[in-house]
Design brief:
520 residues; mainly beta; 10-stranded antiparallel β-sheet; 7-stranded antiparallel β-sheet; 29 strands; 53% strand
Length: 520
């Protein structure tokens, strides 16, 4: 299964509830049951049972409107209700944007209108027993662009524009231009397991997807130097999904706010230079709550290159770095859940003198996962959790060097896979002798293929499985039954085929029969 598909399965848990996710076999790819749409692909392992004090007002046909405020709710009925809301009840519903509250006091404003003083409730206050998993992949028409006032819904596609391609602020040149751009194609996953015996057994949230970013420069002779850092509130994106777990509707709101950081330095002493650095990151990030504690999840792959052209020999030095971040916040009903900050970056460097040139690209990703301490959704331990900075990927990914064609040899060196073919360095990944050390390396992006470690830029040479993450190295074949298979990391059970690695082509071929998290 492709890494990007796996990311798709991984992602929304970060939104739904409260904190980080663990590393179980739910990290397998989306598969045929995953639908792109405002409604998620939903798997219900145990139907919901509500607590005695729980109430779902949406089921009352006489309820016509709910107004949601920070500390109260206003219920309006078509006529006086036969069963008005009561103090001590925990109510949840989708009207008014969604709410999950405990009622502290009730004021009858009219026979058909009630004001309820409330406080935030926990999922375990509402559900006595439930186990479900939801995978969200936003479709082309769900993103709402704007600041909430006069916002519009556009067919923006599954890709979210983080930074518009435009002249970078403060980096105007007398001759030439600076451009930057970044796009994010996200997916989200969450899993909630609440047991009437044990309370919260597991909560998993995962955000994944594909990030693409670039920085470009076209310049005449100039001294280069500028930098900026900003949050793009005007590019905020949001979408809401409502789905049913049994008879209980759940509403989840996803909000993404882009931010960017850019720097450019160096000098150009030739009439014209064209320079572009591109980077791409496929990733999974999140955490799982099990046995009373949170454990982070992170995995990723990357790609990148630099384009560097001048018209005649001369001194050029360029360093250009773009970090195109995104702050992700999810709400379950009206309660802020986990937060994640994604920090993908690309840095390109190029140098030239009369005859020789070299260029390289650094591509990486940093995650930080936490929660809103003021509104815990699951339990108090969530409010105390912060993963700190997690370096998913970092370091130089692509490098090349050569001789300009106007020099003595009269020809440009041929470049393949980012390494010069004129007697330059070989594949640095060949130094790793096993799958785990190969895919865990962060200095150069490597992958394991047919018993050898090779650069990701040579993935096209691989005639078998190209394994580019540590999770894909897990050998699942030793587990002989489903019960021992699915609890183990990145393994899943396929009837007739046995225990398979989630990322293997065999698991993909198993299709809807594949069981990544439970046996049944």
């Amino acid at each position: 299964m492709g890494f990007e598909n796996r990311l798709g399965r991984l992602a929304l848990l970060v939104v739904l509830v409260a904190s980080l996710g663990g590393c179980t076999s739910d990290d397998s790819s989306g598969g045929p049951d995953v639908r792109r749409g405002a409604e998620p692909s939903l798997t219900i392992y145990r139907a919901p049972q509500l607590r005695d004090t729980a109430r779902h007002p949406d089921l009352d046909a006489d309820l016509v409107n709910v107004e949601v405020f920070a500390d109260r709710l206003l219920f309006t009925y078509s006529s006086a209700p036969t069963s008005p809301p009561q103090i001590g009840e925990v109510v949840a519903g989708t009207r008014g944007g969604g709410y999950l509250r405990r009622i502290l006091d009730v004021t009858e404003l009219a026979p058909e209108r009630f004001e309820l003083g409330t406080e935030s409730a926990y999922l375990v206050d509402y559900f006595e027993d439930v186990h479900f998993r939801a995978v969200f992949e936003p479709p082309t028409d769900v993103w709402v662009e704007g600041d909430g006032i006069g916002a519009r819904s556009d067919a923006l596609g599954g890709s979210v524009n983080l930074i518009k391609t435009e002249v970078a602020p403060g980096c105007d040149l007398e001759s030439g231009a600076v451009e930057v751009g970044a796009d994010f194609m996200p997916s989200f996953e969450m899993e909630v397991d609440i047991s009437w015996r044990e309370g919260l057994k597991e909560f998993r949230f995962l955000v994944g997807g594909d990030l693409e970013l670039f920085t470009a420069l076209r310049s005449g002779e100039a001294s280069l130097g500028c930098s900026w850092e900003r949050t793009f509130e005007s590019l905020q994106k949001e979408f809401t999904s409502t789905f049913f777990v049994g008879f209980v509707p759940v509403v989840v709101t996803h909000t993404l706010v882009p931010e960017g950081k850019y720097s450019l330095s160096g000098s150009v002493q030739v009439p014209q230079v064209e320079f572009e650095a591109r980077g791409g990151v496929g990733f999974t990030g999140g955490a799982v709550y099990e046995d009373g504690s949170w454990t982070p999840i992170s995995d990723g792959s990357r790609r990148g290159n630099v384009t560097f052209e001048i018209e005649e020999g001369g001194n050029v030095t360029i360093t250009s770095r773009l970090t195109a971040g995104v702050n992700y916040q999810a709400k379950l009903y009206d309660l802020a859940g986990p937060q994640m900050n994604l920090g993908p970056y690309v840095e390109g460097q190029a140098m030239s003198d009369l005859c020789m040139w070299n260029a390289n690209a650094d591509v990486g990703l940093q995650l930080n996962i936490g929660a809103r301490a003021d509104i815990p959704v699951i339990d108090y331990s969530l409010a105390e959790y912060n993963s700190g900075a997690i370096d998913v990927l970092s370091g130089t990914f692509w490098t090349a060097e050569g001789t300009w064609p106007w020099c003595a040899d009269g020809s440009m060196p041929e470049v393949d896979g980012g390494m010069s073919m004129d007697g330059g360095a070989g594949d640095p990944c060949e130094a790793f002798s096993d799958c785990d050390s190969c895919t865990a390396n962060t200095d150069v992006a490597c992958g394991w293929c047919n018993g050898s470690c090779i650069s990701e830029t040579r993935a096209g040479e691989c005639s078998g499985e190209f394994q580019d993450s540590r999770s894909s190295c897990v050998d699942c074949s030793a587990f002989g039954d489903c019960g021992s298979c699915v609890p183990n990391g990145y393994c899943g059970w396929c009837p007739g085929m046995g225990c398979l690695n989630d990322e293997s082509s065999e698991a993909a071929a198993c299709g809807a029969s594949y069981q990544p998290s439970s046996c049944g």
